[in-house]
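Hey L., structure's done. Input below.
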Amino acid sequence: MASPNPTAPSPMPLAHVQPPFRRLAGLILGSLALLAAAPATAELELHPRLQTSLPAIFPGMSAERLNVTEIAPPPELPLTIDLTLRANNLWDRLRNGFAMADLNDELVLHYQQWYQNRPEALRRMIERSRPYLHHIVEELEIRGMPTELALLPMVESSFNPMAHSPAAASGLWQFIPATGKRFKLEQNWWQDERRDVMASTSAALDYLQTIYDMHGDWHLALASYNWGEGAVKRAIEKNEARGLPTDYPNLTMPKETRHYVPKLQALKNIIGNPETFARLGLPFIANQPYLATAAAPRPMDVKIAARLANMTLEEFRHLNPSHNRPVIKADTPVVLPADRVDTFNENLANHQAPLTQWQAYAVKSAERVGEIAARFGVSTAELAQVNGLPGNVRLAAGSKLLVPGSANQDGLQRMLGMESSPAIIQPEPKARGKKGKLTAKKTSAKNTAKGSRPVSKAKPVSSKKAPAKKPQKK
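Output:
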């Protein structure tokens, strides 16, 4: 067997033998790796060695330059809500402004179930809120206050501006007379601004901000709104003296106040949850102004104001429930739908007839309302109602009444300056009895209650004869 040739080269191991296509693939992958490592937006110059090594089988790829396409990353979702964007749905705007701490207890659950079990009543209440809610939310945002306070009239009055409580609270926000005066709401013979939607809303937010500044807690502010800030302050001081917590859940308070904040929280939970809101079929309210104001430079009848705005009298009174009399003072703002203001102003400018069909009447000698009504061709009941009188009472000389007509406008202007009723009710005159003695004529239960019925001070005379005196013996 012949020995191997010592001069022949030794064979290369198989692992080191690379076919041409594997070398070509490695060259391409290396080129792409260099491209990926460079900035994506740059136009890359290839190394001279790589330029000469590109095979001819890739005609679309230039040996001098490569065009790079940038792949944009997926957009990131915002982590916060942009409150500067205008929402089309007022409920979304309301939810975005919720800022009060939540209250979670059994009473909240109870009232949440109570409202959800009565969807029809909840829908009616929300429909009543439609004209007013946008204005209230806007006022809260301007002041930087929590927007869930816009739901408070649902608890107070069910959004009925004519609501009146046994405690003499009145209006959407249920002001009692003393608190209304404290926050400069006029209450006189002509008008009660506790029922004025815009004036009472401004006063209510002033009051809520005042008691929040006092306590530093919205739950305690709401308790003060319902119970009185003095009562809440005393309850806090009592807990402090005993070393007890002084937050809302731990104060001793009346049942009405204990249930007050849970009712508001329950409504917040329902309206704040879009799924629950949709399931109950609650009404949509557009995020646009509903109310605006206008005024006339002269006294104006409520009926004429409604006609100038192309509204029914009922619609006008619904937005202007504060007027007690059929005449509105000059320059008094009237509340109208925002889309009726231009119509009102245009019709007012073209209105040539008098703006009021009422005039002042001065009573010269004592007479009854029925006698005056007959003289002016109106019913006794209507004249009494217009002037806020209890019925066909007897008026004293010097009394002033609103009666139909427009002749005495100067007298009307003077009447408009009076804060209280200008009518003076005169008691019934005393009539003479059969023996010429004066006796009071019974006219009404009111007079009897006041003690106007005469009471005889004479002792009753006995029907028995006095016994005859016996003659004394001498």
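The radius of gyration is 43 Å. Strands lie at 291-294, 300-301, 327-328, 334-337, 358-362, 367-368, 394-395, 400-404, 430-432, 438-440.

-- N.
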